[in-house]
Amino acid sequence: MKIYGLTGSIGMGKSAVAKMLRREGVPVFDADAEVHRLQGPGGRLLPAIEARFPGTTGAKGVDRVKLGAAVFGHPEELKALETIVHPAVNHVRKKFLRRHRARAFVVLDIPLLFEKHGHRKVAGVIVVTAPAWKQRLRVLARPGMTSAKFRRIIHLQTPDAEKRRRADYIINTGTTFASTRSQVRRLVACLGAKRGR
């Protein structure tokens, strides 16, 4: 089984591409979704997060606004949160890989693949991209998003041009839905053909 990494900056359409991959029968591990589950109502990480960041959790799970305020712009606090979250996500990812070990390939959807050096552990990297103006429109349409917050997020991410330069495969979502879906289907056929090579 080969493991490929799927990544892309905020607002590039990575989640849409992940859904298309699943529709084509590709097992996709969504790191962000797993984090939400672990931090949601009754989530396994709530006690540890509350102990380290008092007042940031409740009956509905983590209060993302409060936790974000506690760690955003504070590298040491962010590192403390990652020390809680990353081992738990890694454990679930290993179970996912064992479950799909008979498949030709699987995809790990990891937003910070380059930033956390995960690209070194996969057979290839798929980067989802779109024009900067479209990215900005998509992101600013999100509830609670501001231009200042968007700039801070972008500052923390590897630039799109750099991601594209380091990619093994690129999916462009700055076009029509049908075109993007066609790109995804070609990619799936290409990756499937690489089995055993």
Any descriptors?
about 200 residues; alpha/beta; Rossmann fold; 2 domains; 5-stranded parallel beta sheet; two-stranded antiparallel ribbon; 9 helices; about 50% helix; about 15% strand; globular
The CATH superfamily of the largest domain is identified as P-loop containing nucleotide triphosphate hydrolases
Let me know the average pLDDT. Answer: 93
Number of helices: 9
The outline comes out as: globular
Largest sheet: 5 strands, parallel
List how many beta strands DSSP finds.
7
Q: Uncertain spans, ≥5 residues at pLDDT below 50?
A: none
So, CATH architecture of the largest domain? 3-Layer(aba) Sandwich
Series of H and E elements: EHEHHEEHHEEHHHEH
Domains, number: 2
Which structural class is indicated by helix and strand composition?
A: alpha/beta
Distance between the termini: 11 Å
> What is the quaternary state of this protein?
single chain
Q: Given this structure, which CATH class of the largest domain is correct?
A: Alpha Beta
Describe this structure in words.
This protein is an alpha/beta fold. The chain has two domains: 1-26 and 100-110 and 120-197, 3-Layer(aba) Sandwich (Rossmann fold), CATH 3.40.50.300; 28-90, no CATH class. The protein contains nine helices and seven strands. The chain has a five-stranded parallel β-sheet with strand order 2-5-1-6-7, sandwiched between helices. A hairpin with a 2-residue loop joins strand 3 and strand 4 (61-62). The radius of gyration is 17 Å and the shape is globular. The N and C termini lie close together (11 Å).
